[in-house]
User: What shape does this take?
Amino acid sequence: MKPPRATLFRTAAALATLALGAAAVPAVSQTARATAATAATAEAQWIDRATVVWKVEHTAATAEELRSAAGGTLRLAPSALTDAQKAAYPHLADRPAYRLDPRDRDKAATALRGPLTAVQRAADDRDHVLHRTGVQIPGVLDDLYAGRARRARLGPVFHGGRPTLSVWAPTAQDVSLDLDGRTVAMRRDPGSGVWSVTGSPGWRDKPYRYRVRVWAPSVGKTVTNEVTDPYSTALTADSARSLVTDLADPRLAPAGWASLKKPKAVPLRDARIQELQIRDFSIADRTSAHPGQYLAFTDRGSDGMRHLTRLARSGTSYVHLLPAFDFGTVPERRSDQARPGCDLAALPADSDQQQKCVAGTADRDGYNWGYDPLHYTVPEGSYASDPDGPARTREFRRMVQGLAHAGLRTVMDVVYNHTVAAGQDSESVLDRIVPGYYQRLLDDGGVATSTCCPGTAPEHAMMGKLVVDSIVTWARQYKVDGFRFDLMGHHPKANILAVRKALDALTPAKDGVDGKSIILYGEGWNFGEAADDARFVQATQRNMAGTGIATFSDRARDAVRGGGPFDEDPRVQGFASGLFTDPNGSPANGGRDEQRARLLHAQDLIKVGLSGNLADYTFTDTGGRRVKGSEVDYNGSPAGYAAAPGDALAYADAHDNETLYDALAYKLPTTTSAADRARAQVVALATATLSQGPALSQAGSDLLRSKSLDRNSFDSGDWFNAIHWDCASGNGFGRGLPPAADNESKWPYAKPLLTDALARPGCSEITGASAAYRDLLRIRTTEKVFGQTTAEGVQRALSFPLSGTGETPGVITMRLGPLVVVFNATPSRQSQTVPTLAGAPYALHPVQARGADATVRTSGYERATGTFTVPGRTVAVFRASGAVGR
Assistant: This one.
């Protein structure tokens, strides 16, 4: 059991509360405060205009009521929730319910615009209060306003050159516009709770904020907040003010934008994705004219762009960008960004001084992964040549153009599940406009922080609308081709399906994009306050099966690597890292019998992964039983959960946790040569690359990318994170002990590794691994049998002919239509005889036979017996004579 993300508080107790998942979400800076601790207690929940749910029980001696400074007293009577209400609020289904007196219901809108408490008092004495608590109001706000508010166009909207600015603030006592230093009154629509004002053409590109007078329960008083627009389309530097900007303004369009032709859309089931952080991509690339910027993707001759182009020609179809929306933890002006003051390169490979120096400036430098949203629909300013104004819009678009010219479509990593701050924090946007609505609240009214940060509530109508509207804007105005949802399991399934529906409605004629070609996938982890569908049907792995929206599959990932990111001993081995076949001596791996059993089970998990994680895919497991993918155990859960190819996304590494190279560095025996480490890397990558369904790899993994063993580099600076495209610069290994905050307990294992010459690859290993990986990519994208469209097609085409009690530990033999693929993770040459293929005319696939890997070319096939022989740590693909790819 592994937590999906490192929590803000980094405590063992907090980690123990989380469920299965992919790993460490970046703990954000000090601005992401634990607002739940300061929020006023609010244990009553007003779920619609007529109903309040509260834990207190009514008796003959008590009376219950809502007391409002604005609306007076609203009387309550004991009641019961209807079946529909229980379905809408499953976590409240067993609570006492109260109905508002019909005579008081017209007071609701007024009552919500000021202090509000729920009171239980003695029935015969109004002043004898038995219980008092605050009131959670999202449900009643949705009931009163969402019907009309959902249809509102929020933010700046232009008609005939004149902008209308609109913001949803139903509980505000007053909202005005601070436009370029002057105050402009706004009008409230009582039916929607939207405040708006229409201005002159002269307002274009002027800075503005809303001035919102509202009751703030977190501080227990009425406040006047000057706050930016949640629907901002542009910002000044450091997100100080929104700008009245029309994204359709031709001045914001780079040359060729309107006529941009994207590479042909690749269906999600065939997508091969490179996950990439914008700054990592170019900050250390001496050949880039725009290091660390959007414009680095326009430097066609740079090492980084040349490598991406090679990958695209081999079959990579999408680049997945880590968060590129406006986030809250990096100074956007380069002049304000701190830099480590040490000579980092002069320090020893195993020194703790690099991480100490980097940590000293981490809160003020230019680096962060960006999982700390401030404004969801504006490009991040620190990646622009000038963060103050329109450059970030133009340059984001030029980045999309640059990727398209390289043959790649663009995916954005989006983080709608939390905000950088809540309450009255200066970096809280949503919660300072409608306090207590956009953030998900716990039973006591505190803000949920299971995602590491103040959580949002997409189950509430207007947060759900913000998600959909934001995604549609990125698709229409920035021509983004796909979206990866961070912690998607914290969204309702209905919200993600609403995104899908909105995108499907976009057409080239009407919107300039084909919305149906846009791919969606995300982290379907099941944990936190929403776990097990406690509040709604979640967008989790199991629930998203059959929707065409993929979820990351951790099943084969763990089997290939071995262990998990929070193992006390990081040397726990798996299929590609030598479990049983090349033991590293760690007691954490158990005895020989245990290792063998674990390895064979890992092979079954990988087979399920190769099927696309299909729940109903049937095969013979290593115990000799005929099983479905759903009957193979993964830590107490079904390994197979997908209904069709494309439901599960395969990967061996991503930005979370150690890079694949670093994980293997810990796990492979210390005597493993650099060449064999590179070969093990390719074997691990192949298990995802050659699977049915989509696959993702972290950028640079084909180049053996290392972060010097850092398992959570969200704030570790350029020194640990930069990609080194030139092999002469190394792969990033041995740049000092990784930052103490997340890695110190592993330093005793890390220190001897970082100075070990065997663990430091040279150019031959780096370039050789990349070339071998590209050959496998080319095979995957040219052999149509890898792209089955249905579960039935996978069942017909895919088999594991040697699976069963006699299966070779460390070797998987896969038959796929006219292909036979042998995954040999052992250190020695292995022969696999498939009697049913005796006499069949197989040969090494032409791509590998002509490819860069001399070792795989020594693979052999004996036709008379149907025997395939493959060198150690090698994946060989054989094709029947006469069979051709697409």
